[in-house]
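Quick log. Single chain, no ligands specified.
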Amino acid sequence: MSSEEKTPAYFVHEKGMCESVIGAGSRVWAHAHVMKNALVGADCNIGEGSFVESGAYIGTGCTIKNGVSIWDGVHLEGEVFVGPNAVFTNDMMPRAKSVNPEFHLVQTVVKRGASIGANATIVCGTTLGEYCMIGAGAVVTKDVPAFALVIGNPARIHAWVSKKGSKLQFDANGIATDDDGNTYKLENNTVSIIE
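-> predicted structure:
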């Protein structure tokens, strides 16, 4: 291809709407809407019927499945997976404007590589750790540590998972190795990769 030929930097379905500049290789599918001043990194997939509000941030390589709304104050680092119809909030005390005209934005941070299951609810003010996994339908009301698998309402730690999502089996010394040879250490209810 010559330097004068240009390929589209990203794809927006003819029935999708994108009012922001988004990263190269990203895709916005039918009936999805990315508002002005939303930030979407490269190589992201915004599923059908999803909504990305002004002020939201979606890092490189994220997958947003169908029917997800990413509100102002929600910050997804790179390589995050958000399952269909997962819910984020951004106000701890929401009221109709006629009752309380003040809006109190509360941020939510989802760290690199985290996965959020279908229909999970993420209450604002929480941080989801790197490579954590939120089970389908879970209700997250507090921070989730890196590599934790949480399930239920309210979400509680059920197990620990590797970068690829397989359950980790720790020995008596709190050491586990995944199928790729990565070694993990469990100490004080925290998991980290041993470099």
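The first strand starts at residue 11 and ends at 12.
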